[in-house]
C-alpha cells in the first residue's frame, strides 16, 4: 500500500499567527484545549502493580502538572547482577503513541522472565503520562520530550528519565525506544509544530508499516535488520516513497532510516549503548490491528535483546 500524503489544502493551524512563534498567550490557549481522554492510572499503573510480585518497581520521579500529579514508574529485574549488561526499554516518550506503552508492558508481562540471569532489564513503559492521557505528542508546556534529551532539559519527563539511567548509562548494551508514526502526525502534530515555531507547514507522507530509526553516528545495520526480520513475521514493513525515503529520510536498508540521535535530543541517544534503535509502528494501517502493533513492539524488544546478547559489545 502506498504512503499516505497529507492534503496540500490543510488550513492554517487554529492557534497563533503565521510566521510568528508562539508566546505565552498562544501556549495557554493551546493548553486550554487539551482534555483528558484516557486514564494513566487505569491503563498503565494498574498493569504495573501486579508486576511487583516478580520485578522491582520504583517511582523514579513525578510530574507535578497542576492539578494532576503523575508518578513515573520503572520496572527492573529482581535478580539484578552488576556483572551483567543492561537492556533499556522505553515507551510512551510521546504519550499518544499507544503501542509504545502497551508494547513495553506486554514485553515485561510475557517475555521479561526469559532473560533472568542473562541481562539486567530496565523498562520505563510510559515516560509521558500527561500526554498519554491527552493522546498528545507534547507535554503540558508544549514541549516535545523526544527532542529534549539533553543537559538542562526543558522537559521534566526527559530529565527524570535521564536521572534514572545515569547510574547504569555506561553499562547499557541495548536500548530500544518504542514509538508510532500515525496519521495524526500530519493532520495535527506537524501543523502544530510549524505553528508553534512560526514556520510554514510542509505536507509530508505517512509510511504504511513498521520501520526503525538507526543512529547515524554509530550505525549497526545487522542489528537493525535482525529486528526488522523478526517484526516482519508479525506486521508489514514500511516501503520507501517514490523518492526512496521514509518520513523524509533516505532508506538505508529495508525498513531502516538513520537520524543523529544525540544531536536531535532523542531518547534513543541517552546512553552509549552499542545497539540502539527507535521503533515506529503504523497503527492507522488497514493491514494492522492494535494487537499486532503491541505484539510488534514486544517482538522488536525481544529481537533486539537476543541480537545484542548473541553478539556482545562490538570491538
TrEMBL record:
GO terms for molecular function: hydrolase activity, acting on ester bonds; metallocarboxypeptidase activity; zinc ion binding. GO terms for biological process: proteolysis. Residues 8-21 have a biased composition (Low complexity). Pfam families: AstE_AspA_cat (PF24827). This is Peptidase. SUPFAM superfamilies: Zn-dependent exopeptidases. Keywords: Carboxypeptidase, Hydrolase, Metal-binding, Protease, Zinc. Residues 1-22 are annotated as: Disordered. Residues 36-315 form the Peptidase M14 domain. Belongs to the peptidase M14 family. The keyword Zinc applies. Its cofactor is Zn(2+). The keyword Protease applies.
Amino acid at each position: 500500500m502506498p504512503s499516505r500524503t497529507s492534503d496540500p489544502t490543510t488550513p492554517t493551524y487554529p492557534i497563533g499567527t503565521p510566521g510568528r512563534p508562539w508566546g505565552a498567550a498562544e501556549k495557554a490557549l493551546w493548553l486550554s484545549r487539551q482534555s483528558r481522554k484516557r486514564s494513566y492510572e487505569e491503563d498503565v499503573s494498574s498493569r504495573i502493580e501486579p508486576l511487583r510480585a516478580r520485578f522491582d518497581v520504583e517511582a523514579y520521579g513525578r510530574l507535578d502538572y497542576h492539578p494532576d500529579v503523575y508518578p513515573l514508574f520503572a520496572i527492573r529485574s529482581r535478580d539484578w547482577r552488576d556483572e551483567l549488561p543492561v537492556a533499556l526499554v522505553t515507551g510512551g516518550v510521546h504519550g499518544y503513541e499507544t503501542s509504545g506503552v502497551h508494547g513495553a508492558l506486554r514485553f515485561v508481562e510475557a517475555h521479561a522472565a526469559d532473560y533472568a540471569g542473562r541481562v539486567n532489564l530496565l523498562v520505563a513503559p510510559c515516560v509521558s503520562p500527561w500526554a498519554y492521557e491527552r493522546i498528545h505528542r507534547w507535554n503540558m508546556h508544549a514541549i516535545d520530550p523526544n527532542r529534549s534529551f539533553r543537559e538542562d532539559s526543558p522537559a521534566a519527563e526527559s530529565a527524570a528519565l535521564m536521572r534514572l539511567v545515569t547510574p547504569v548509562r555506561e553499562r547499557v548494551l541495548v536500548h530500544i525506544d518504542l514509538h508510532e508514526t500515525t496519521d495524526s502526525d500530519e493532520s495535527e502534530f506537524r501543523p502544530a509544530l510549524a505553528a508553534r515555531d512560526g514556520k510554514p507547514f510542509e505536507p509530508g507522507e505517512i509510511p504504511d508499516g513498521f520501520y526503525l530509526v538507526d543512529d547515524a553516528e554509530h550505525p549497526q545495520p545487522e542489528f537493525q535488520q535482525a529486528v526488522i526480520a523478526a517484526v516482519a513475521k508479525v506486521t508489514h514493513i514500511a516501503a520507501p516513497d517514490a523518492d526512496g525515503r521514509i518520513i523524509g529520510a533516505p532508506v538505508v536498508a529495508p525498513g531502516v532510516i538513520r537520524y543523529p540521535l544525540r544531536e536531535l535530543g532523542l531518547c534513543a541517544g541517552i546512553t552509549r549503548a552499542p545497539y540502539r534503535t527507535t521503533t515506529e509502528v503504523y497503527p492507522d494501517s488497514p493491514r494492522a490491528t492494535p494487537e499486532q502493533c503491541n505484539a510488534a513492539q514486544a517482538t522488536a524488544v525481544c529481537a533486539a535483546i537476543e541480537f545484542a546478547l548473541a553478539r556482545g559489545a562490538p570491538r
